[in-house]
Amino acid sequence: MSKKSITAIVAGILAVLVLAAAAVWLFPVFKVSSFEIQGNSHVDAAQVEESSGVAVGENLVRVDARAAASGVAHLPWVKSATVSRAFPSTLDIEVIEHEAVAFREGNLLIDAEGKEFTTDTPPEGAVEITGSAEPGSQDLRDAVDVLAALPQNLRAQVKSLEVKNAYSMTFHLQDERTVFWGASEDNANKALAFETVLKMEGQNWNISNPELVTSK
Description:
single chain; 216 residues; alpha/beta; 9-stranded mixed β-sheet; 3-stranded mixed β-sheet; 12 strands; 31% helix; POTRA_FtsQ_type; cell cycle; cell membrane
């Protein structure tokens, strides 16, 4: 077979492929018939589908995955979203939700980065922040850092975290005891001290210096 013949065959194959790709792009050969939603626990799957802006029956190839993900990410509980195609007929949407570690008066939920993201019923494990920590303030971010230092089983024993200023944060526990934390510093060691004092007798603890824990 001559070189010219081979070139002609290759050109013909490429032309067929281009035409096939064009047909798939222009006509709904692959239609969206289902959605696969992952990672959602606080936001309803139907809300995720609707917010994607993609309807059943659309051409799967022509779905704008970036725009769909952006639409889902606008839901209050959603921190980020990823959208991908699963041929022949499924749109996969993976959701990462905010973790509500705290809330303020009025059930304003706050995530682990100190962002106030929605008003909703506080989930189990979220701690109320009281006092002077204003929205968007460094005091609020420090309070969230302190809460994030506590593992979930310890956080569950906390009723509220009172913030007076950057150097005065006090935990009020479910059993009416208090633990003075102080400033948001040396948090890992303070968390260990926190866990220790919960196992001991004493009504009011001071762990602002985790190497010199006191009680009164």
